[in-house]
């Protein structure tokens, strides 16, 4: 990777890179197969965080008892990814590095406050999800680096999360995807909030202003409506062959309300 720099492309599951090569949208001089690197496929609960190896395929995440027991938003997302073939071959690291703003993992990473571990000639570094996605199909990974792990803090008591996605057909990329994470105290006051959106801009959108509106409230209708207005201001959807921009904008707000409602219900059962 260091030798060829921008002329090299890493290959994990190939479910993002191979279609680009077929369509001549990518023409790297060298493809570097990462699958010979041992120890990068795992889902494990550590003391205070969830750790997922970058070469872990989607289906292994979907089947993980850890995910099913504690991370409902991740379970929501992985079930929406492609078809069985894509889930069996595609990896979480490859998907995140691909940086498609209509993907699923990025929205969940932003909502759950996750980070990405990268390793290169100068050592390892940790990049917050909010800093990892820099532009359409571009990330903060340096040319000589590979992503080795995705890390997400363990959910707090009374936490709830959800990811909902609008798609033209099952397994399609998101017209709109909304991930929400909440922590409610014993009085049902929101003490933490995380929101991530896909399909509504040139990269994934973190709803920071909307998160601030929700924190410290009992999620009244007025607070939710104000949060939705903040999300609307943060979006920059574009029209394409799948849907016009205004439709995406409208559906993002609809799906935000639905995801927020589901996350609130799950918070009562501590299902994040």
Features:
Enolase-like, domain 1; four-stranded antiparallel β-sheet; Uridine Diphospho-n-acetylenolpyruvylglucosamine Reductase, domain 3; five-stranded antiparallel β-sheet; 13 strands; 11 helices
User: What is the β-strand count?
Assistant: 13
CATH architecture of the largest domain: 2-Layer Sandwich
Q: Low-confidence spans: pLDDT under 50, at least 5 residues?
A: none
> Over the alpha carbons, how many angstroms does the gyration radius reach?
18 Å
- Helix share, percent: 25-40%
The overall pLDDT, averaged over residues, is 94
CATH class of the largest domain: Alpha Beta
What's the shape? globular
Strand content: 25-35%
Specify the structural class: alpha+beta
Q: Could you please say which CATH topology of the largest domain applies here?
A: Uridine Diphospho-n-acetylenolpyruvylglucosamine Reductase, domain 3
Number of distinct helices: 11
Structure description:
Helix 9 runs antiparallel to helix 10 and helix 10 (221-234) crosses helix 11. 44% of the residues are buried. The chain is built from eleven helices and 13 strands. The model has no long low-confidence stretch (mean pLDDT 94). The protein has 272 residues and is an alpha+beta fold. The strands form four sheets. It has a five-stranded antiparallel β-sheet. A four-stranded antiparallel β-sheet has the order 10-11-12-13.
Write the layout of secondary structure elements.
Elements: E1 8-11, H1 17-22, E2 30-33, E3 43-45, E4 49-53, H2 58-63, H3 65-70, H4 72-79, H5 84-89, H6 92-98, H7 105-111, E5 115-120, E6 123-128, H8 129-132, E7 133-135, E8 138-139, E9 146-153, E10 159-166, E11 176-184, E12 190-198, E13 205-206, H9 208-214, H10 221-234, H11 245-267
Parallel strand pairs: 1-2
Antiparallel strand pairs: 3-4, 4-9, 5-6, 5-9, 7-8, 10-11, 11-12, 12-13
